[in-house]
Design goal:
246 residues; nine-stranded mixed β-sheet; 6 helices; 9 strands
Length: 246
């Protein structure tokens, strides 16, 4: 495994939206972060411009996986807009989001590349967002760089990342769902496909290819404290007060 590392991210916020097949006035969201969305977050942190396909390519080749730690709730909103010059009303569109969701995402690849991305996350060129610009994370997304590690191992061993209020109200589940790209030793015949392999983010010609996704459960890794270690919860005090008054 020399030269290969895994960069882990905690994706949590009031709203997230990870579209893979949105069209026209209906903007849907997947139930978990897409590779295109997470690679876009990393590219923004690294200062890669939308039309720079050459700099995007190494990031797109990273092996990607995600674990659903807190599934959240799917909600629908309606969006209206007006043309800035003419004032003409634009078509009404439906926007779907995941509210109060938490995910563990990870990318596996060259250690040098991931070291640069790790540094970029801690001082991003552009603010990170959870699928859309209107969906900022509630805290820093960096969960650390694991050198000489495997994607599967990080997704299985990283402590359960659910929010403090969620852990207080629900017992830890026995298993969590992982969606990841198969490794070289796995058969692609048992995998699903999703069109979220980024090729170009150029606004005039965005391109995505199909990629294989393996779905399987992993035992929930809960530390002695009952939840994620070292996670900043800015609203924990308010949640505790709400529980006391309930």
């Amino acid at each position: 495994m020399t030269g290969t590392s895994v960069l882990a991210l905690r994706l949590a916020g009031p709203l997230q939206s990870w579209g893979a097949s949105s069209r026209f006035t209906r903007r849907t969201t997947e139930s978990a972060p897409t590779k295109s969305g997470v690679v876009g977050l990393l590219a923004a942190a690294a200062g890669i411009e939308r039309g720079d396909d050459a700099r995007l390519a190494p990031l797109a080749q990273l092996r990607f996986g995600v674990r659903i730690d807190q599934p959240g709730t799917r909600i629908r909103d309606f969006h209206t807009a007006h043309h800035g010059v003419t004032g003409t009303s634009m078509p009404l569109s439906e926007r779907f989001y995941l509210a109060d969701a938490v995910f563990l995402a990870a990318v596996e690849g060259d250690h040098t590349l991931l070291t640069g991305l790790h540094d970029a996350l801690r001082a991003p060129a552009y603010p990170p967002c959870l699928g859309r610009r209107s969906c900022p994370p509630s805290e820093p997304v960096d969960l650390g760089l694991h050198q000489d590690a495997r994607l599967q191992d990080v997704l299985e061993s990283t402590s359960w990342q659910a929010s403090a209020w969620y852990r207080r109200r629900r017992p830890a589940p026995k298993t969590l769902t992982v969606l990841r790209e198969p490794d070289a030793d796995e058969s692609a015949q048992t995998a699903d496909v999703l069109r979220d392999q980024p090729i170009s983010y150029n606004a005039a010609r965005r391109q995505h290819a199909l990629r294989s996704v393996v779905t399987h459960p992993v035992t929930t890794p809960v530390p002695a404290g009952g939840g994620p270690q070292g996670v900043h919860e800015p609203f924990a005090a308010l949640d505790a007060l709400e529980d006391e008054n309930a």
